[in-house]
Amino acid sequence: MEETGGMAEEHSVEPAPPGPAQHIGQAAERASDSDRDHVVTLLRDHLAVGRLTLDEFSERTGSALAARTRGELDAVLADLPVASEPLPQVARRRARRWIVAVMGQSESKGRWRPGEHTSVVAVMGECHMDLRRAEIDGPEVVITAVGIMGSVDIVVPEGIDVELTGLSIMGQRSLKVRDVPVLRGSPRILIRAFPIMGEVKVRSKTASADQH
Questions:
Q1: How many Å apart are CA 144 and CA 195, to the nearest integer?
Q2: What's the distance, CA 70 to chain centroid?
Q3: Beta pairing, strands 151-156 & 199-204
């Protein structure tokens, strides 16, 4: 090396950015339990601000808990924004706190938003609530279902924590959900059922079941 004035000229070399091979290597790394739990927490945050429906949260949480590599976990979050700060809420539908059917029918399905406390009343009529694609705000949703010579039918995704309480007066209440482990981080749905010569039934159903 040529020296000038007795001092050697030094050149700093910046490290090269990660190449495709390095990214592939990171994606192939085995995921830990803490990696999976972190992704489930992020999914819960996206559910709370309305970016995911309850059914989407259930499906993605199942995929995250079954993931073996970091690449599989990244795929679960691929179409969601990175949460460096508290996630901004997207435009929300107005919460429905009362659903009533009197000698008729009422149906709540698709992408809709129940309130943290929602009352459903069927008087000689039928109310159908499908929570699979609903937007859920908090860790718990309380539904008070009253069927007076009428019926209330509530559908939930599989793997969601559901509890049915209440009192039947010459009526019937039933809980028929698939016996699968409750997904970590899933919101809890508490249903208080009061059928009076009527019926309140709660059942689980997958999104793919609609295609059959």
A1: 11
A2: 21
A3: parallel
Are residue 145 and residue 60 in the same domain, yes or no?
A: no
Q: How far apart are CA 143 and CA 154, in angstroms?
A: 10
In the block, residue with structure tokens 């706190």: 97
On whether both 54 and 118 belong to a single domain, the answer is no
Q: What is the mean pLDDT of each run of 10 residues along the chain (212 residues)?
A: 49 52 65 90 88 91 91 92 62 86 95 94 97 90 97 95 96 94 89 98 82 52
What is the tally of structural domains in the chain? 2
Measured distance CA(202)–CA(162) in Å, rounded: 9
Residue-by-residue DSSP string for 34-96: HHHHHHHHHHHHHHHTTSS-HHHHHHHHHHHHH--BHHHHHHHTTTS---SSSPPPPPPPPPE
Which DSSP symbol is given to 23?
A: H
Give the whole-angstrom CA distance, residue 77 versus residue 67: 12
pTM: 0.75
